[in-house]
Fold:
Amino acid sequence: MNSLNRKLLGGLAALSLVGCSSGPETRLGDYSAHIEASPRSIVVAPITRGSGGTLKVDRYLATITKPLAEKGYYVTPVRMSAELAVQEGFDSDAARETWGNEMISKFGGAITTVGDAMLFLEPEDEQDIQRRAIALADYFNADAVLFVQIDCWDAEYSSENKLGRNIINPIMDYCSDLDYMLTDANGGILWRAHKTINFSKGGGDWTIEIIDSIKKPNDDEIAAAMARDVNRVVIEGKRSKMKGTWYWETVKFHPGPYYPD
Amino acid sequence: MFGKIIQNRFMALLVCGVIALPVSAYAADKTLYYWSSYDADLYFFLENPEPETEARFEATLQHIFTESDKANRKIAPGLLAEYGFLLYQRGEFDAAVGYFERERDEWPESSAFMTKMIAQAEQVASE
Structure:
């Protein structure tokens, strides 16, 4: 279990003990709170990275809009939201009112710089999650906030060209360790999912679009295709064509107001 | 024999591909919205924010708007605002406001946020 997951579970326990107004306890795979809240709009919090990770995770934002929008939600523009969140440091009037001046230093401390990129550190505890959710929902006027943390996301592969088609051969396991948490505008937890994905040699969904491309894909294109597939699978619960190569249970994300009947 | 089968299959795939290509955006597209290569181009832009990747992302957004309008299809949430924000960051505030307004008109959920961004853009433009 990674550190955020431990913290999230700890946070849930703490919330249930203190009777905080953050909503009912939510178990993995439990959609009841999500259904009851019926959010129309979702803002995606800046992606955070586990302490053991080395990946620049901000690019992962690119993969999240499509599955959420196709599930029928209004999704706040992700690049715009992330940049504004960094600029504003989550400093909003509602959050200030709730948390006072402590909030400002907290959020100031929650941002770090890695290379040229501004990254948000993983939430410290359940109060930190609540603070961020309240500030983000208020600033972007969203009904819900989606937190995503990535702890591992890597692969090794080789590629070759046969008869004009590109074949990708995974060499090493591809793993992706993701924590998802959806909260309401007050930081109450609506839905959670933890996914560890392992990909063994033999191919899978993420190779398909590469193989179908005419030109030889470069490393960036392969990485982007992999990123898209991770989110498509996790959010939509779509299973790989290669049974047995993916190690997670199917997850459903409750449809939003624009999802066709 | 085996080579011929492969060749025939390859040709069949090629022919199908050529026929399917012009209509693939809509005929085979069961998505709510038209996305083109939005996610890939945003990915490249976020990973390497250079003029080239920005231009590619911008061109893709314009293409999505044009094609969606032509097909009388709703533009996916956030994309008009995302484009407006690119313009905003370049100092093209009047044009940015136009896209923020379109996002607000298309998506009532964005109304308060877009109204705030419009006011901000107009204020910066007047300074």
